[in-house]
Amino acid sequence: MVDRLSGIAENIQNAQEVDDDVLSDDFLPANCPVVPLGTKMGSYYYMDAMQQFRELKDKDHSRLIIQGLFGTHVEVLSQGDYARYSKKGSVDGWKPDEWAKSLMAACAVKGVFEPFEKVRGAGAWLDDDDQIVIHSGSRIFINNQSFKPGVYGSYIYPAEPQRQSPAVTLLDDGEADELLQLFKTWNWQRPDLDPYLLYGWIAAASIGGALSWRPLMWITGDKGTGKSTLHDVINGIFGNSLLSVSNTSPAGIWQKVRYSSLPVAVDEIEAEEDGRKAQAVIALARQACSGGVILRGSSEGVASEFKARNCYLFSSILIPPLMSQDRSRMAILELGQIGGTPPKINKPHLAQLGSKLLKTMISRFDVFKQNLEVISVALREQGVPSRSCDQFGTLIAAVDTVLRPRELTVQDCSFWLSRLKPLLVKEKYDNENDNVACSQHLLTSLCDVYRDGKRRTIGDFIAEAAGLENSKNSQPTDEDQKEANKILSSYGLRVVADRSSGDKFLYLANNHQGLNKLFLGTRWQGGVYRQSLLRYQGSEPVNTMRFGGMTSKCIRLPLDKLLFVGIDEMPLE
Predict the structure, then answer these.
(1) Where are the alpha helices (DSSP H) in 264-364?
(2) DSSP labels for 171-225?
(3) How far is CA 480 from the centre of its chain?
(4) CA distance 104 to 45
(5) 3-class SS of residue 342
(6) How do 216-220 and 312-316 pair as beta strands?
(7) Per the count of CB atoms within 10 A, which of 35, 184, 398, 527 is most buried?
(8) Nearest to residue 316, comparing CAs of 231, 244, 218?
(9) How far is Cα 230 from Cα 512, in angstroms, rounded to an integer?
């Protein structure tokens, strides 16, 4: 055994090309139920006897763990060179060290293995031929055929707990409408749109791992709006294929998700004074929309990677503050107080409908892709930003695919655009650019200066220093302007008119305690406000300017851009 291992190691060191299958067979018995996959950075990867994906460190190749890899096939352990003999010559055990050497060497022959690229857990995926593969835990569904977990094509589909499987038949028209009418039971803020968007999210989430864009949704509403009942309905439709978590962290979600592409429902993620945990979870969901690679630290100090390919559904009474890039990636649905009796939930029936819904999305995947292209083009023609096209285009394409088997027409697009219009207008107003949000924070910040017993804002003093109407709707005098600029200087701000053009500019010091205090606790603290505000057209860095008793490098902004930019004037992206 030692001579054989040494010989193979010598071949590898000499960079000789050797057939992987031959070497693996040479290392391990032909009937070995454990499949070596490869190695990386001191980790060794296997499919055990139960077809589960296993990761072992060097030190983990102990007797008990190796026995665990073989499961019920323990008889293989004491075969051939691995057998341990008694003094009488009979087999009385096996050699764990020899097995450890063989298993690790077989992994080394397979080469470097990257789990996040090759391992596919429960959920929907695309194979190399762009066909949907459904991993239901105990079975793999490919082209209407069912297989045991294992290696298919370029990917490993390990055994996992049983999840929802596609039904034999599709949703018929009555069943598809039954779900829609159920969603309409709730008191939605937009009753002619929100039930459809929720329907679209459920349909898209059922095949989330196969999508190029995974839509993000947030359901909000006060107590008594039926959020819990609605969550039970959604959970019933997915069966046990919805990963539900409450008030968690990115690490907690990662432990739950691992290599799966199953949808994730995050409940009770409320607005809090310290919103860092919520923001971290939202950032994870944002990455999942486009299938971003997430880095996660380990106790050994080695970063591990995984690709987030899950559709996320958030629910809460209040929504934490969202950045514009997050709002543009999600549909926010608001519930009002529910009237009457909540609908009765028949979970077995919902699970049957969910399996048929999954089958419908698989069978009509080509229709879905065509629908997505058509509605995305229609949205772009309306000036909708690309992220919103991805988000709402996917939701509409999915729900339309379920409700009718034919592809979207021009008339269908007009129908959806008319319903989406109020939401898209709201998106346009809510999703302000970062520079606008930064300037609004500055302008609305209160000064530690009182006038007529009241504190005034920075924006009020800027307007007064520029000679514009002040808070009393009167024209400032020269003395008023000088006094306003004096106050602004204490914050590292100053209004100056260009001598040649007469245009007025606001100057902001690069480093000033007053400005640092105004932006403390925001994403623009530590001087980051300069990056944001320089995105205004006509803004630029300048060498020096006096602010009271100090001189500092600074940036200057055209006042007309700062004070008078309107939402309608802002670019959509």
Answers:
(1) 276-289, 324-327, 347-363
(2) PPHHHHHHHHHHHTTS-BSSTTTHHHHHHHHHHHHTTGGG-SS--EEEEE--TTS
(3) 51
(4) 9
(5) coil
(6) parallel
(7) 398
(8) 218
(9) 51
Phi, psi (deg, nearest 5) at residue 150: 165, -155
Q: How far apart are CA 483 and CA 461, in angstroms?
A: 9
Cα-Cα-Cα-Cα dihedral sign, residues 424, 429, 433, 438? negative
CB distance 316 to 268 below 8 Å: yes
Contacts of residue 82, Cβ cutoff 8 Å, sequence gap at least 6 = 94, 95, 98, 99, 102
What confidence tens digit (pLDDT) does each residue in 502-544 have?
899 999 998 889 999 999 888 888 888 998 898 888 899 988 8
Q: Which residues contact 525 (CB under 8 A, 6 or more apart)?
A: 516, 519
Separation between Cα atoms, residue 388 and residue 331, nearest integer Å: 9
Distance CA 70, CA 102 (A): 14
CA distances from 130 to 125, 201, 210, 232 (A): 9, 21, 9, 33
**Residue whose C-alpha is closest to residue 312's, from 359, 405, 248, 399:** 248
b/e map 514-536, b = 16+ CB within 10 Å: bbbebbeeebbeeeebbebbeeb
Domains and CATH numbers, the chain: 2-113 (no CATH), 173-428 (3.40.50), 434-569 (no CATH)
Structure-block tokens of residue 352:
């049957």
Question: E strands, 308-394, where?
Answer: 312-316, 330-334
Query: What 8-state DSSP symbol labels residue 335?
Result: B
- Nearest residue to 506 via CA among 449, 454, 458, 572: 458
In the block, which residue shows the tokens 């039954």? 178
For 33-87, the three-class secondary structure string (H helix, E strand, C coil) is CCEEEEEECCEEEEECCCCCEEEEEHHHCCHHHHHHHHCCCHHHHHCHHHEEECC
Tokens 């609305």 found at: 444
Per-residue pLDDT at 428 exceeds 60: no
Token pair belonging to 505: 């500019």
Residue 438 CA to residue 523 CA, distance in Å, equals 9
Q: Pick the residue with more confidence: 402 or 289?
A: 402
For residue 238, what are its two tokens? 């997915």
Phi, psi of 448 (to 5 degrees): -85, 40
User: Is it the case that residue 10 has pLDDT exceeding 70?
Assistant: no
Gap between the Cα atoms of 464 and 458, Å rounded:
10
Contact assessment for residue 346 and residue 232, using Cβ atoms and an 8 Å cutoff: no
Residues 439 and 533 sit within 8 Å (Cβ to Cβ): yes
Phi and psi at residue 301, to the nearest 5°: 85, 10
* Structure token pair of residue 71: 């499961």
Burial of 259 (0-12, 13-18, 19+ CB in 10 A): buried
DSSP 129-155: TS-EEEE-SS-EEETTEEE-SEEETTE
Residue 309 has φ and ψ, to the nearest 5°, of: -135, 45
Compute how many other C-beta atoms are within 10 angstroms of the C-beta atom of residue 198: 26
Q: Give me the percent of the chain exceeding a pLDDT of 70.
A: 87
Does residue 147 contact residue 165 with C-beta atoms inside 8 Å? no
